[in-house]
Amino acid sequence: MGHTNGSDNPATSTQTRSRSVNGKSSYQSLRNMVQDGSVDLDGKPVSRSRTGGWKSCAFIIGVELGERFAFYGIASNLIQYLTNVMHEGLATADKNVSNWTGVALVMPFIGGFFADAYVGRYWTIAVVCVVYVLGLVFLTLSATLHTLKPSACANPLLPCPKASSAQSGFFFFSLYLVAIGTGGVKPCLQAFGADQFDDEDPTEKKRKTSFFNWWYFGLCFGALLAFTVLVYIDQNVSWGLGFGIPAAVMVVALGIFLIGTPFYRHKRPGGSALTRIFQVIVAAIRKWNLVVPSDEKLLYENHNEESMLVGRRQLQHTDQFAFLDKAAVIDSRAEGQYTTQENPWRLCPVTQVEEVKLVTRVIPVWLTTFTYGVVITQISTLFTQQGATLDRRMGHFKIPPASFQAVCTIVVLLIVPLYDRILVPAARAFTGKERGISLLQRTGVGLFLSILCMITAALIEKKRLNAAKDHDLLDTPQVMIPMTIFWLLPQYIIIGIAEVFTLVGEQEFFYDQVPDTMKSLGMALYLGSNGVGSFLNSLLITIVNRISSRNGHNHWIRKNINRSHIDYYYYLLAALCALNFLLFLLVAHFYKYKNAKSFLASAASSPYRAAGTIELGLKQQNTPAPTSDQWEDPQC
Predict the structure, then answer these.
(1) Which residue of 2, 199, 383, 602 lies most exposed, with the fewest beta carbons within 10 A?
(2) With 0-12 CB in 10 A as exposed, 13-18 as middle and 19+ as buried, what is 441?
(3) What is the mean pLDDT of each run of 10 residues along the chain (636 residues)?
(4) What's the CA gap between 344 and 279, in Å, rounded?
(5) Calpha distance 328→353 (Å, rounded)
(6) What is the torsion angle, in degrees rounded to the nearest 10, for the CA atoms of residue 44, residue 45, residue 51 and residue 56?
(7) Is residue 79 within 8 Å of 234, Cβ to Cβ?
(8) How would DSSP label each residue in 398-415?
(9) Gap between the Cα atoms of 379 and 450, Å rounded
(10) For the CA atoms of the chain, what is the radius of gyration?
């Protein structure tokens, strides 16, 4: 008998074919896995085809639509409720609205921090939504039960009864529960939506850019319903029903969010960002006398397993803020202690140092967005009060003054699809940039438009005051001025166009440019800039009234809007916006965009494989791990 070659052995051939089939199967499973470190709710790797993308974002955008419907259902008409039901003066009501809006937009810093560091975005959204619903329910009770609100005005010529301390306390307690709720939901929900797209996949990365446009589209659609349906109910049916409907909608929104759970991709909490920032600062100060080597390769880098698990990519070294590089300099006098266990308060990896640089670069941009937040605040305060004095008749229908905010929203709904489908591709063909124009260029366009908006608003307000004077209505602000409310259209249209550029641009900028483990805080920066703007508006009103009332002169902003000089205030805001715009151009000129390695490239330079979590997931599914050749496939 001749010698039988091992390859001719049927059993051996079967085993070889089996390994080949299993290898191909595991390879296909690997390629279908999300490559950016995302996991499911149980911490296991997730499939690209079964999770994320637009299928999960449909739930998330739906929740945002409901949440914005609830929030704007309260915010859009709040100044009317405070002046007409709680019987506050215009200046007091304006400041209370500004303060509440400011808290609602600054609270995201707390919610974003705990979501990024410890809890995760999913659980933060789920828990805080319950607080949100409670606030709305209490607010409904405050507007419904007679014992929880002041009596109506018996005689319009006499002072109206003020709310008692208990009534005001319960109302504002309920109102600030809503602020806490939106503060926890907003930064996490938007960041959670952006998390559903894998930056390692070119197609999904391109869709993420569109996500921010369509996210704002959904946001504005919810706001449009609030500005029209809820405001009409407030003015013509009852405040209790107008506050009760948002409570019911938020319950439905929470249910929608929970139904989408099987389709979501999650990012693991990355630990305290503040701790990592202070470690770099302390380490740099401790080694202030060391010289940073000219070769960046001599700086310390250690992209460990923990970084891979939380989806943290390596960052390229930059020359800005070189002092911080001292934190990554290995002190030769103590080199031995770093070979066993690094002390993070004495030695930090380059990526950690670059994360601090990212935050340092983002802060000046953030500061230049505050004045835009002041302008946005006018939409729900002084713009609304202007409209309340004008002729709001449209045939037999009378437009509620707060509903005119819908004009701004309609403009956004019209412009966003045009921007995403026409302007971006056209600009991309011209500039070669993936987004068409850079994030800061987009933001800058909106900041410039805010200047035009304030100048336009001042001119229209001057016309309104002249009309009141011509018809002898300066001392009767409750009487309609024979001037149509449609004169306010230009200022609403301009600020609506500005929102498409600045607010959407800010959202994408602060999500994209912060460290990978600080995405919720990035969204908090965007929201916080508008919140700080609200506080600044309140402060400006106080300062302006104090200065303008010197030497016996009248306040610029008084309870009687026809005796006020809101036009002067608008010109002041236009001047501040112009100065801020110049500062923004300077900051944008020196800004360096984030330069991160891909997730797999980060893993290649790490002692841990990028697919470590994926290999674990395959083992849990009893699937053979890919061969080394398959790992090296560039498509993998």
Answers:
(1) 2
(2) middle
(3) 49 51 51 76 84 88 91 87 86 84 83 88 92 95 90 75 89 93 87 86 80 84 87 88 94 93 89 89 91 86 62 80 90 53 83 92 94 90 87 86 85 87 85 83 94 96 91 83 92 93 89 86 85 86 85 76 88 96 95 75 48 41 46 42
(4) 6
(5) 7
(6) 60
(7) no
(8) E--GGGGHHHHHHHHHHH
(9) 12
(10) 29
Q: How is residue 481 annotated by DSSP?
A: E
Task: Read off the amino acid at residue 95.
Answer: K
Burial class from Cβ neighbours inside 10 Å (0-12, 13-18, 19+) for residue 4 reads: exposed
Burial profile 150-183: b = 16 or more Cβ within 10 angstroms, e = fewer: beeeeeeeeebeebeeebbebbbebbbbbbbbbb
Residue with tokens 């859009």: 76
Burial class (CB in 10 A: 0-12, 13-18, 19+), 450: buried
One-letter amino acid for residue 462 of the chain: K
**Other beta carbons within 10 Å of 462:** 16
Using CA atoms in the order 156, 157, 158, 164, what is the torsion angle rounded to 10 degrees?
30
- Entry field: residues in the chain: 636
Q: Let me know: does 265 contact 201? Beta carbons within 8 Å.
A: no
Token pair belonging to 12: 């051996």
Nearest Cα neighbor of 425 from 438, 434, 414, 416 is 434
pTM of the model: 0.75
> Are the CB atoms for 410 and 390 separated by under 8 Å?
no
| Confidence (pLDDT) at 138 | 95
Distance CA 439, CA 513 (A): 10
Residue given tokens 């009378």 in the structure block: 398
CA dist., res. 600 & res. 632, Å (int) = 11
What are the two backbone dihedrals, phi and then psi, of residue 86, each rounded to the nearest 5 degrees? Answer: -85, -10
Q: Return the amino acid letter for 97.
A: V
Cβ-proximal residues to 312 (8 Å cutoff; 6+ apart), any chain: 37, 270, 303, 351, 515, 516, 517, 602
Nearest to 197 by CA among 207, 188, 189, 187: 207
Tokens of 223: 């706001």
Q: Is the dihedral angle over the CA atoms 403, 102, 129, 234 positive or is it negative? A: negative
Please name the residues in contact with 295: beta carbons below 8 A apart, sequence gap of 6 or more: none
The CA dihedral of 280, 281, 285, 286, to the nearest 10 degrees, is -40
Count, in order, helices (H) and strands (E) of the chain: 25, 4
**Would you give the distance in Å from CA 341 to the centre of its chain?**
38
CB 149 within 8 A of CB 86: yes
For 308, the token pair is: 């891979």
